[in-house]
Amino acid sequence: MAKTRNRVIFHVDMDHFFTAVEEREHPEYTDNPVVVGADPRAGKGRGVVSTCNYEARKYGIRSAMPITRAWRRCPHAVYLPVNYDLYEKVSSRIMTILRRFAGKFEQWGLDEAFLDVTSKVHDLEEAKRLAQEIKRKIYAKEKLTCSIGIGSNKLVAKIASDFNKPDGLTVVEENDVKSFLSPLPVEKLLWVGKKTKRKLNALGIKTIGDLANFDASTLIDKFGVMGRQMHLSAKGIDRSEIQEQWEIKSMSRDTTFDEDTSDTKLLLKTLNALAEDVHKQLTESNFNFKTITIKIRYENFETHSHSKTLPFMTDRLVDIQKTVGNLMQVYLQPDRKVRLIGLKLSNLVSSEKQKKLI
């Protein structure tokens, strides 16, 4: 095969990462449905499914599903709390492996990454062998499987990685992009969520091929700039680069109470704990922030958020706690019970960059 002039992009996606790590740590869970997320408390728990394994998915359980619904579908599953410390350690080791194979590297969350390997291979056959070596290396070091998609851009590579899970490897040659994408459901595109899917379906657009063949000007009229982006994506066009230094835009924490509460002391104590948690991430990542947002959800699911932008950049815990305390005052109503509270730090700037500006 002749040397390719196209980019060669890998999307590496760990298979049901959280539950796979739990099964590795607890072999007795193997072959059982496993759900990582909130505690179902005999079907009365709060929160959602974070990840589930393929055995659990046979019962219709999916990520982001309310934990109570998961319990009703499969009460005999193994339900586990999220162990972020463990997952982050495993993720860090996997990402270290992946970086060694990449010309350019971009991590997405704990379990996904894009690799530009254009400078590492001469053709797609060599790219396939490199992907197989990555899979072998990860399994040898961590006893975990991953699925890899190979394409000429990030869009195609990401869709390809999901095409043959688990433990899959899918190569999409440049000439095959249209035939690969066309029959897939339109929601396989990254920007098409449930609401957008319904709007597209109403226009008779069910597949990516339908979207690619639809009139672009009509899409722009109905969806604005996003209509243009969706149309290009449906044609397999994506010129976005691998971003080696992925910019963190915000840091957030929230918690759902086991029982709705109007206890002011408990609410403020919980907010302080969330503040300490997010402050730890802030300082470990060497960031300063300027904007704080709190979120509150009442027992009837009515949700509010309120933000304050400080007149200065800071990384001090006291600034977080004082601001969230002030923002929270308006929502502390003795006759209204709270289901969830959370906080977010945004307008983040690297403390190193901040020092250079000063």
Could you give the topology of this structure?
Blueprint (H helix, E strand, L loop, with lengths): L8 E6 L2 H9 L8 E4 L11 E4 L1 H4 L9 H7 L4 E3 L3 H18 L2 E5 L3 E5 L7 H19 L3 E6 L2 H8 L7 E3 L5 H5 L12 H9 L5 H6 L2 H8 L1 H10 L15 E12 L2 H21 L2 E12 L4 E12 L2 H12 L9 E9 L2 E2 H7 L1
Parallel strand pairs: 2-4, 7-8
Antiparallel strand pairs: 1-6, 1-7, 2-3, 5-6, 9-12, 10-11, 10-12, 10-13
Helix pairs in contact: 4-5, 10-11, 12-13
Written overview of the protein:
Helices cover 40% and strands 23% of the residues. The chain is an alpha+beta fold and 358 residues long. The chain has three domains: 1-181, Alpha-Beta Plaits; 185-234, Orthogonal Bundle (DNA polymerase, domain 1); 250-357, Dna Ligase, domain 1 (2-Layer Sandwich), CATH 3.30.1490.100. The strands form three sheets. It has a five-stranded mixed β-sheet. Strands 9, 10, 11, 12 and 13 form a five-stranded antiparallel β-sheet that branches. Strand 10 (287-298) and strand 11 (303-314) form a beta hairpin. Helix 4 packs antiparallel against helix 5 (124-142), helix 10 (216-223) packs across helix 11 and helix 12 packs antiparallel against helix 13 (317-328). The longest helix has 21 residues, at 264-284. The radius of gyration is 23 Å and the shape is globular. It starts with 8 loop residues before the first strand and ends with a helix.
